[in-house]
Amino acid sequence: MTDLAATATTRADGRQPNQLRPVRFQNHIAPYATGSTLIEWGSTRVICGVTVEETVPRWMKEQNVSGGWITAEYSMLPYSTLQRKQRDITKGKIDGRSQEIQRLIGRALRAAINLELLGPRTIWADCDVLQADGGTRTAAITGVYVALSLAIRKLLAEGKLAKDPLLHPVAAVSVGIVHQQPLLDLCYTEDVAAAVDLNLVVNAVGEFIELQGTGEESTFSEAQLTAMLALGKAGIRELLAAQQAALA
User: Which residue among 4, 215, 228, 248 has the highest number of C-beta atoms inside a 10 angstrom radius?
Assistant: First the structure.
């Protein structure tokens, strides 16, 4: 742990700067999904469901692309926030934030699986935020990997897959700088106050899938980035262990 990350006061919820909120998985929450889990991460709760279609998108057929595909949808339920959030369907289009997040989820999952071994089928990953208290995108990615693993197990058990297509487990976590202090796993009040916000998507062999770092009307130094990456990678290791425990 870096000195920058360790010299800290406790946070509003009593956590240390390098401490995750409690993470819990409730598997098989959606019986009709091929694989599903409810991830509870502090006060953030996301239902993650995976379903399988025995076909591929039209563009894959037209371009003669072999293998399968994974795509994701993300939404925040109207009652997931303190003020009611309008459904996208009532606005006639998906909002930009939701579109960005579902693309991120899709990229993360496609990095976790061998699409050739998946065969000519499409996996749909649906992430619905039941309660939001910061880190909904990281909770969605971390939870939906568990749902995906459960779905793959079911396909293997049914003989629909000859070989396990999963590569390395994937998890995601947020890190930020709040009042000059690097903090792991920001809750909503910390996220709002953060001068810098960084989301990490990392696999089990320590490879980065995506880094989303932004100075909120601020800049950050290389030393601060190094401290945030150290915090994030330590948090990812804990999340990967929690995923494996949930799948054990």
Answer: 228
Provide the 3-class DSSP secondary structure of residue 62.
helix
Question: What's the token pair of residue 106?
Answer: 């899709």
pLDDT at 89: 73
The rounded distance, in Å, linking the Cα atoms of 147 and 70 is 13
Distance CA 139, CA 191 (A): 14
| Edge-to-edge order in the sheet of strand 170-178 | 181-184, 170-178, 196-203, 208-215
- CA 232 to chain CA centroid, Å, is 13
Provide the domain limits for residue 25. Answer: 3-247
> Which residue has 């996208």 as its token pair?
88
The residue ranges of the chain whose pLDDT is under 50 are: 1-8
Which CATH number goes with the domain that contains 182? 3.30.230.70
Q: What is the largest CA-CA distance in the chain?
A: 57
Cα-based distances in Å from 50 to 124, 152, 155, 213, 243: 6, 10, 12, 28, 16
pLDDT at position 6 is: 40
Sign of CA dihedral 12, 182, 103, 40: negative
State how far the Cα of 195 lies from the Cα of 229, in Å rounded to an integer: 16
Question: Residue 2: its pLDDT value, please?
Answer: 39
- The count of domains in the chain is 1
Q: Work out the burial of residue 201: count CB atoms within 10 Å of its CB; fewer than 13 is exposed, 13-18 middle, 19 or more buried.
A: buried
